[in-house]
Amino acid sequence: MFEKIRLNMFCTCTATMNLSQQALFVKTFKIIFKVLRIFGFLPFSFHAKKKFFSPSFVASIYTVFILLTIYLIFMLCSYYSMIWLEIVRAANGKIYFKAVYIAFNITSSVVAILVTLKNQKEIVDILNKIWQVWSLLEQTSPKMADRKLLKSVIVKILLVDVIPGACVFSYRYQYDVANNKSYAHQGLLFTLLQFITSLNIHNMFIVLFYVGTHIYRLININFSNLNLKIKRLEKGLSFWRLQPEKRNEILHFIEAQLNQLVTLHFLLNEITQKLVQIHALTLLLIVMTDFLVITYSLYSMYVTTVLEQQRGREPQLSSYGFHVFVVYFTLLQAFYFVRSAMHYTKRAGKAGLILEDQRNDCSEDRLSRTITSFTVQMVYQDCRIMCFNMFEIDFTLIRSMLASITNYFVIIMQLQLSI
User: Fold this and answer.
1) Would you tell me how many other CB atoms lie within 10 Å of the CB of residue 290?
2) Interior CA angle at 203 toward 409 and 57, to 5°?
3) b vs e for 138-148, b when ≥16 Cβ sit within 10 Å of the residue's Cβ?
4) Where in the cell is it found (predicted)?
5) Which residues of the chain are modeled with pLDDT < 70?
6) How far is CA 195 from the centre of its chain?
7) Which stretch of DSSP H or E encloses residue 181?
8) Which residues contact residue 353 at a Cβ distance below 8 angstroms, ignoring those fewer than 6 apart?
9) pTM greater than 0.85 (yes/no)
10) Cα separation of 63 and 114, whole Å?
11) Residues 6+ apart with CB under 8 A from 81
């Protein structure tokens, strides 16, 4: 009796925990969606009662206002007063690097907003289809939160975006004020906007891939549940032979469910790939900006320490620490960006393995042929995240990026030493 009470209490606590985690999972993505709307990357409105996205004239006007005031007027004016005039006064490799990577950062944000505004109807249609697939699967799946994704998103927001950024930028501002720099306030705001813009562009794609990953998890859970039904059917084969009508009814149900899940699987990949194609230029600019930021920061660390000591000057440790943080921040943004795309591809391909297990466990010829046909379609479906069909968004991209940065950095050091 006591064991039953403990088991019931454990099941109740587990169900409550799963529901609270699921609510936290949904709220986290809603917060990120609202932040992206504030900075102009998603000029859409979401109707909570009817549960669909729609183009919003007010949101579009607000996005154009943000585009003109923040990304064009303020950032370009700050770029001219703080970067371009510095190039005119004292041109060197460090300043050129800084000018190029900031120009790419501004360009990537402007391109992301312009592409979204231009393809507003298509993107809204894609978001509505994703939401419909998610809602449909939530009704037939167990109410369980995706703990791995939830933990990854919370760690990304707290330990990568918010806390380190607040600490470093507060210290940087105090350093500029202490050195009586006239543009301390403008410089901090300009750097902060670059920081926020970079993380928002990365988060926009990270959220997209994580939502797709979560939906594929729900599809895989439904595939596994059907697999259990097939195994139960096979175990009671002698019983079901006595009830052929009931057996055929169950087989028709399993076949209809398989057909629906496979259709949702293909639909989700199709609309995700379409959205990636729409924002392919944005993806390319993100990768190029990350490459330039890491290269510039490593070169600045080298100039701040080695060259200053060679010239008999005291290294500026505050500037060195700031560039260390920039490398840390950019590498983690690139890591989570690539990791989210890898999770999407991995879970999308897992459905084929589950179907293969179903085919091996099924002795019914008609159902086995259906599963075989679906498995072949899954094998030839391309779920990789590609940018202009030039390169795949996976960990080989980070390795190639780091290898190229190392080569360029060695060349720069050799040129610097030979001068």
Assistant:
1) 25
2) 130
3) eeebeebbbee
4) Cell membrane
5) 1-22, 24-26, 78-98, 141-146, 164-165, 167-169, 171-187, 234-244, 306-319, 358-366, 416-419
6) 16
7) none
8) none
9) no
10) 10
11) 183, 186
